[in-house]
## 1
Amino acid sequence: MADLSIDFCGVKSPNPFWLASAPPTNSGDQVKRAFDAGWGGAVWKTLGNPIVNVSSRFGAVDYGNTKMMGLNNIELITDRPLEVNLREMADVKKHYPKNTLIASLMVDTKDEWHEIVKKVQGVGSDLIELNFGCPHGMCERGMGSAVGAEPEVLKTIVGWVMEVAEVPVIVKLTPNIGDITEPAIAALESGASAVSLINTIKSIVGVDLDLMVPRPVVGNASSNGGYCGPAVKPIALHLLGQVAHVFPKPISGIGGISNWRDAAEFMALGSTSVQVCTAVMHYGYRIVEDMIEGLNDFLDDKGIASSRGLVGKAVPQYQNWGNLDLNYHVVADIDPDKCIGCQLCFVACMDGSHQCIHIPGMDDAAKKKAGHVVFPTDIPDRPVTAEGGTPGARIPWVHEEECVGCNLCQLVCPVEGTVTMREKRKAPEKETWNDRINAGTDVVPGGLDATAKARGAK
Amino acid sequence: MSDYSLPDGRLEEQLGDKAPLYSRAEAVAEANRCIYCVDAPCIAKCPTSIDIPTFIHKIATDNVRGAARTIFEENLLGASCARVCPVEVLCAGDCVYNQWGREPIAIGRLQRYATTNALAQDAALLSKTKAPSTGKKIALVGSGPASIAAAGHLALDGHRAVIFEKKAIPGGLNTLGIAPYKLKAQDALDEIDMVLGLGDIELRTGVGVVAADPGEGEVSAAQLLEEYDAVFIGIGLGPDNYLGIDGEDGAGVYGAVEMIERIKVDPGFDISSMKSVAVLGGGNTAIDIARELAQLGVPDVFMVYRKTAAVMSGYRHEMDGGLKDGVRLVENRQPIAIVRDLGGEVVGVDVEDTSGGGAGGETLACDAVAFAIGQSRLTVLAKAFPGVELDDKGRVVVDDETAKTGNTKVFAGGDCVNGGKEVVNAAEHGKRAAREITRMLNAG
Ligand SMILES: Cc1cc2nc3c(=O)[nH]c(=O)nc-3n(C[C@H](O)[C@H](O)[C@H](O)COP(=O)(O)OP(=O)(O)OC[C@H]3O[C@@H](n4cnc5c(N)ncnc54)[C@H](O)[C@@H]3O)c2cc1C
Ligand SMILES: Cc1cc2nc3c(=O)[nH]c(=O)nc-3n(C[C@H](O)[C@H](O)[C@H](O)COP(=O)(O)O)c2cc1C
Ligand code: SF4
Ligand code: SF4
Ligand code: SF4
């Protein structure tokens, strides 16, 4: 049994699984039920001066048979009176002293910041998270992502908070910015203890073509919202990886986390804790059981004694393209015992890659028509024999010498394990583009005359 | 791998696997089809109340061991049940997809995927949760699913469990009765091994429990009550019933359960001379033996049932499968005699029309007959435990929640209590009894 507990800026949490500031942390009753289900911490729905919300508020992107691959919202911060939230927070902390209670805040002026920080500290918040990320509504009022996107403004506000802060302060970053490392470094310089990311991504999920109004529809208009859910995970992971390289303090990872594996990936890329919103909005607090169990088993399998041992494990391997080994090379291999003969790999390679997958039995004219430019003569003619295969279909053949190792065929193949990528190095030694730059050999023949001339002149 | 390995050359080895193990991709695709219902109707239809949406969700997230834990927590025989449960009338029968007119989730196959792969990854998956030893010991009579499940739960609770099985091969009908295309005897035995490994469990095969006066290799009810802190009765049902009609005795006439046992575990059983077999009965055992014989290549297999298919107690999905296997169904016929030639060989069954259509009698030609009209009750042994009562159908009377009999030390479950249902019902009884025994023993 691995030790799942974490230490986040000196605050102990029973596990790394926290609820993100959002509807699942709207009230004390909800947070209590979440803690009962096993969540280690909760970032309360952002507090500030209560707002008025519109309806409808959410839009979703369904993909194929998957509901809510992405979720978008135009909801603002809490719409409940501050006093009510504070009373409930105190009550939660009293009954769940071991769970981590994080107050998420968003206000405007220095006095407001001072007042609210003191108030949430007074009710026993373990940590404070500054919501500099909300990309709709609040930013029009100069708050949320309007702050997160301006490192100087961010520094000023963090400075105000630090004047009265007695608990560690997390700055929640917005992804709606050109370079995420700028606000991360600004947070560091202004004395924040941690960052969390990502908040939602500016989005319009669709347009109602009858009304000619973007979704979600509010009467006869709509506004851009914030996008989250499984669809944003790759974006969040990337921004996390970038921040992990410049931010030496704890990070709380957020964005599309739905299960233990997602969580483990975020932790490997530098998250000490992870926060979840959409997956809980979709399926409920109950999903945490699988997250705890799955992470535990995973750590045990890898011989990692505690969840802390996983944090940041993949960060050094996230590198600039220029450092990648150009001599590392893989080629596609099709397992003739598994292939069902659907030819999806063929069309993907023909139209989407390098025309090196062949279907046996074509004469040269047919090959030419199909789009081949190289005509190997030794294509093996293998009928599909796999169970469930298409009768009479032929097994495609990869012309290894032409295969660029893009692995598109592997990605499209519907039968797991049929296409594998086999290592076939171009040369034993490692050579990167940066090595070529250093050696002055970073010109590939076949380019522009002007470039060749400029380089030759150098 | 099992302590009990079966010899080669048994007929059941010739039969395939009706619903093979899913590959990972197949399992994940099917798991993702499940909508992860809240208050899911499928759970209510599982006799052991497995949290089905949770275990399926865990398959979807690749948390296979977690999925198996969720299954085993409620049903230690989840691996067998995955394959033998008639899911069409249990969990999957109430999956929300049915109402939508779409294929229900293949719950049994997903359960098989999770249990098989989890145990392959970690054979000690369950024993990690074992409680410290309590020093209490419980005797279990019979080694069918009811007793095996009870013993497993008791062992995890820290007790010592001693199972007495009169046959040489353990497992009851789960080993000896299940249609081979669902579960092979060896798989059932391997599962028993898994359960025996959960804690302090001893299995004594070839030891019958008798009402009184134990002989060699026997132990009496009184001895068990004397020596153990509690006793669980899981003796199942008795031998096949017969009709008491002419020609019934002698070669060529079998009890269906007896015949299935021989198909599964007796390498000496030979059916090559059977060209036409009459199966008497319309229950699931009748359909099973008919399907097995047909699949094993008997050219003509027909069931003789006294009423119509519409009111048969055998499951419709099983009968449909039987018809596809080539089994014929003769409805509205009551057997009145087995006809033998001068040499004593079976040549047919005399039947009477019961439809009221007045068709009169006829002889249905065949060279072997299998009686599948139910199993008898083992009432004598049950009654040997003071306080244990039977109902008018010979079933042991228990409290449903606790599996308690009229004797506070004696519990019972499985077919001997419900008159013959499924493995999953026996597993649930075993679990309830174990929970109550633990509650009782730990209370003092
Ligand atoms: C042909 C057939 C097919 C079936 N198919 C299915 C199916 O597909 N799916 C399903 O879920 N269920 C099926 N069942 C039902 C299922 O097998 C039973 O419900 C289940 O095995 C009952 O378990 P049990 O532990 O109560 O009894 P049993 O499995 O009958 O086990 C009782 C054990 O007790 C032993 N015993 C009896 N008396 C004594 C004694 N005095 N001393 C010591 N030991 C004793 C017996 O030898 C036996 O091993 C089938 C049943 C039959 C007959
Ligand atoms: C309906 C909704 C309301 C949200 N409200 C807040 C909020 O008040 N404060 C905040 O910091 N983030 C808010 N978020 C953003 C989430 O905390 C989280 O950063 C984002 O949803 C990404 O995580 P996910 O992919 O797990 O949903 C909200 C998200 C949603 C969907
Ligand atoms: S996509 Fe996969 S299954 Fe289809 S033809 Fe190619 S290798 Fe075979
Ligand atoms: S034990 Fe049987 S009824 Fe219960 S969920 Fe599993 S397959 Fe369905
Ligand atoms: S009813 Fe069907 S869809 Fe719903 S949880 Fe059960 S198996 Fe899944």
Note: The mean pLDDT of chain A is 95.
## 2
Amino acid sequence: MTAASPAKRFRDLGSKAVPYLLILPVVVYYFLFWLRPVLKTLIDSFRTAAGGFTFQNYIMVFTDPNFMPALRNTAIIVVFSVSLEFIAALFLALLINRKFFGSSLFLFVAMIPMALPAVAVGAMWLTGLTAHGWMNSLLYYLNIIAESHKIYWLTGSEWKLLALIIVVDAWQVIPSVMIILLAGLQNIPEETIEAGYVFGGDYLTVLRKITVPLLGPTIQTAVILRLISAIQIWLIIVLLVGFSRMPVLVERIVYYHEEVPGLDISFQMASGYTIIVSLIVSTAALLYLRASGAFGSKKEAAR
Amino acid sequence: MATLKMQNVTKQFGRNVIAVRDFNLEVKEQEFLVLLGPSGCGKTTAMRMVAGLEEVTTGKIFIGDRDVTDLPPRKRNVSMIFQNYAVWPHMTVYDNIAFALKLKNLPAEEIDRKVKEAAGLAKIEMLLDRLPAQLSGGQQQRVAVSRAIAVNPDIFLMDEPLSNLDAKLRVSMRTELKAIHEKAGSTTVFVTHDQSEAMSMADRIVIMKDGEVIQVGSPDDVYHRSRSIFVADFIGTPPTNFMEVDVRKEGEGIHLVNSHLNLLLEPALAKHLNTYSKDKIILGVRPENMLLVSEDEAALSASCLVSEPQGSHQVVAIQLDDSIIKVIAPASPTILPGTAVHMSFKQETLRFFDPDTTLAIND
Ligand SMILES: Nc1ncnc2c1ncn2[C@@H]1O[C@H](COP(=O)(O)OP(=O)(O)OP(=O)(O)O)[C@@H](O)[C@H]1O
Ligand SMILES: [Mg+2]
């Protein structure tokens, strides 16, 4: 017994350590490539160019005349693009889920925008939206506008530009939202929906009371992913109208980081913006998750 | 409550799958009708057409005197119990049962009363606040039953509602469903491929094969007066024994003869073969209608292959050339493998089938 027990204890210790050993590579990976850069950015945002501690970067960020417009524009884009994309994607997913003749071809076509990189999308819409672009040509050939009435898509009020950006972004990301929702729809057992019809529901009632609630977790996933990436829209804006014309938060980061390296604290300001954007993203995500009931007990979530 | 009538209903999927073919059926008021048949014979399809979940290709469906053929499910006033229960996982038991009542805009007190009444019938009053995920399979099935009763439907449809339950629960739920049916008095169509379930529950059984109705009748009818070899074989455990025999007319009498058997038919049975012109028939005899007798009374003798004791009786398997027949014998004495078994028949129970059409000759 005395001979067996140290060996046994060693074995116990070994078996306890195994799970930790197994996740060690992931921990190391996260530390090196995720936590370290985050911490470095956080520290940089409190540093002067010479390396001392300061709040100056944040003061500069908050007094940047473009900060408030950037915040406002980002908020508008998020609210409208997420709602628009969600509604359009749900509609498409419901349509494709009916498996009509040719629905798989339709699905394929609908997914094309997803395959294009953002830069290509920007370039494509840019060539489309200039005064002599394909958008005006198309409208002209369809006899919707006269030759002398070219629409100047990329000029004019900020609202017009915002709407344009929301539409272009929606064009690209609706397919991915749709795929998530479609996968969710296909996971709902058919009998559950049919029971809704048998027990007195018409299409809209069943959609509202059964399909959408059962799709809940999927909708949550889709919306949270879109929410985060809508806050991060910038490339398409810069490609369409350039820097500083339609400031949004992430565009500011890139702007200070890439476009004004002459300023000796531009790097620190970019870090400041980064931290602020991260806080906003996390807060928005948390607020949304709380509002949609993801933190409640199962029972509350179901109500 | 109402009657249900299906008139020449056919359902075709795509170009070449005909799931239900020229289906005619009348279900009487308050009747418990069972659709029985092997897997893939079109039972579910037939039922879904009644519910309105599947369009008919041709034919008409009437509930009472309403032609419902082109109505959507919600306007048919039928309710359905699905094979996988299909209770809504995001609603409490109460809300599941109340769903249809709320859509009818009934006053709250009335909804409450009906929900509790339906829950009481299925014995789930104490589960009303739970979510389906917190219930066992049997309890979920009861929720589905309550939900279906609560709307007071014209027709009650059940698609293999017991097939997901364990064997013991299945048998006790059978009894309960039947009792609920007696109390609620609803016209019911019940689908199953389990013949003992069908026998024990049905007022009438509809036997289907390949989308067609083969026989309609009371459990007694389909069991004792099976209209074809298919029915005689499908109904009963163990099923009917079949033997191919020659028909010999010798003087006034008719003998059925094969290498093991020589049976002089009683006049009451022999008359069925008077107008029969072929010289072979398939003889069908149920295992409990074969009697063990002494050697000199025997119509058929062979040796026992194996005997399966069942407590109240034993099932004796007997090898005849390349086929095996089964006989139900009293529990004792135990018949040992290899011993000679001498048998005669309860003649009035014999069934004669035409070997070409497989249909019964003596109806
Ligand atoms: N949506 C469909 N599309 C094509 N064929 C179908 C469809 N639904 C059913 N079928 C076919 O119709 C036939 C009858 O199917 P049905 O589901 O009615 O059988 P069933 O008698 O209910 O069988 P089971 O006892 O296995 O449930 C089968 O051959 C089946 O393959
Ligand atoms: Mg079926």
Note: The CA atoms of residues 26 and 96 of chain A lie 39 Å apart.
